[in-house]
Specification:
The protein contains two helices and seven strands. It is α+β, with helices and mostly antiparallel strands.
Length: 70
């Protein structure tokens, strides 16, 4: 099962997504988190906290879960 994260704008950055999904407590933790954990967006590994996520994107973070951006 995938968790769903709804966005009200055209896109959300990966750093903002991590906070919205309650994986990190603050945006400042995004850089550290991305250096410590593998994050896959639509099947491709990406460590850029500024990566734009749009509706339909799938974010997979092993040991944290799979998320769909709506």
């Amino acid at each position: 099962m995938t968790n769903q994260i709804k966005i009200a704008t055209e896109y959300i950055t990966l750093g903002q997504f991590l906070k919205a999904a309650e994986i990190i407590q603050s945006g400042g933790m995004a850089k550290w988190f991305l250096s410590e954990y593998e994050v896959f967006i639509n099947g491709e590994q990406d460590q850029r906290r500024g990566r734009k996520l749009r509706s339909g994107d799938i974010v997979d973070i092993p040991s944290f879960g799979k998320f769909t951006v709506l």
